[in-house]
């Protein structure tokens, strides 16, 4: 499929042939859902923790005698049945991550790229370079109509461009190796440089 290539000032800079195997698939929500779920689960800290009966700070004295009170037979105030007692079967630190094969992760990325292309939310620019002036880049982004955009560059992001984009709200920049399904779907517009297209085609073929 062919797509116009533009410059950051909005002028046309030719066109590019995009690989149908990456940008021409019929997007499947189930594949995208599984990959996003894998990403978010792996990012979860899993540091939740409650105090159990053996960990709460309380007296270990038997609260009243075993027989003759007419009440239940209790041995400790740390029991989960009392206020300030331990929590029974509460959450403990653990990993929420699960496995997903490399092939499936790559398939998910191809479907994410195809989803953006099909929705008309894919833009290819010649290069992402800047002198490092935030005001100049912000004006260009506004003129192009990018409100929530993810820009993916080649192997490395231009230092001046990264510095200029740092304080622009709704603009994210990643190198091609950082391209992932969650970040692509989260933003309204996906912007690829020509170097990013080449790198992604080499990575996903």
Automatic annotation (TrEMBL):
From which domain of life does this come? Bacteria
Q: Name one GO cellular component term.
A: ribonucleoprotein complex
Region (Disordered) residue spans: 65-97
Query: Which one GO biological process term can you cite for this protein?
Result: translation
Q: Which GO molecular function annotations are given, in alphabetical order?
A: rRNA binding; structural constituent of ribosome
Query: What Pfam families does the database record attribute to this sequence?
Result: Ribosomal_L4
Q: Which UniProt keywords apply?
A: Ribonucleoprotein, Ribosomal protein, RNA-binding, rRNA-binding
InterPro entries from the UniProt entry: Ribosomal_uL4, Ribosomal_uL4-like, Ribosomal_uL4_dom_sf
Please name the NCBIfam families in this protein's record: rplD_bact
**What assembly does the database describe for this protein?**
Part of the 50S ribosomal subunit.
What job does this protein perform?
Forms part of the polypeptide exit tunnel.
Q: Which family does it belong to?
A: Belongs to the universal ribosomal protein uL4 family.
Q: Which PANTHER family match?
A: 50S RIBOSOMAL PROTEIN L4 (PTHR10746), LARGE RIBOSOMAL SUBUNIT PROTEIN UL4M (PTHR10746:SF6)
Any idea what this protein is called?
Large ribosomal subunit protein uL4
Gene source species: Ruegeria sp. PrR005
């Amino acid at each position: 499929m062919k797509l116009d290539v533009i410059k950051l000032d909005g002028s046309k800079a030719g066109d590019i042939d995009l690989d149908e195997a990456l940008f021409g698939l019929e997007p499947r929500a189930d594949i995208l859902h599984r990959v996003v779920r894998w990403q978010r689960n792996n990012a979860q800290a899993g540091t939740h923790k409650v105090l159990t009966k053996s960990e709460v700070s309380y007296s270990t004295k038997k609260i009243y005698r075993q027989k003759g009170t007419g009440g239940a037979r209790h041995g400790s105030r740390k029991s989960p049945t009392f206020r300030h007692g331990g929590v029974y079967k509460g959450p403990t630190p653990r990993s929420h991550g699960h496995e997903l094969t490399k092939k499936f992760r790559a398939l998910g990325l191809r479907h994410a790229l195809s989803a953006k292309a099909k929705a008309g939310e894919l833009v290819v620019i010649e290069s992402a370079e800047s002198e490092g002036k935030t005001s100049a880049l912000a004006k260009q982004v506004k003129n192009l109509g990018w409100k929530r955009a993810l820009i993916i560059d080649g192997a490395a992001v231009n230092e001046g461009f990264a510095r200029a984009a740092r304080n622009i709200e709704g603009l994210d920049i990643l190198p091609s190796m950082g391209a992932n399904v969650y970040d692509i779907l989260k933003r309204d517009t996906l912007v690829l440089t020509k170097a990013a297209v080449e790198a992604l085609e080499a990575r996903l073929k």
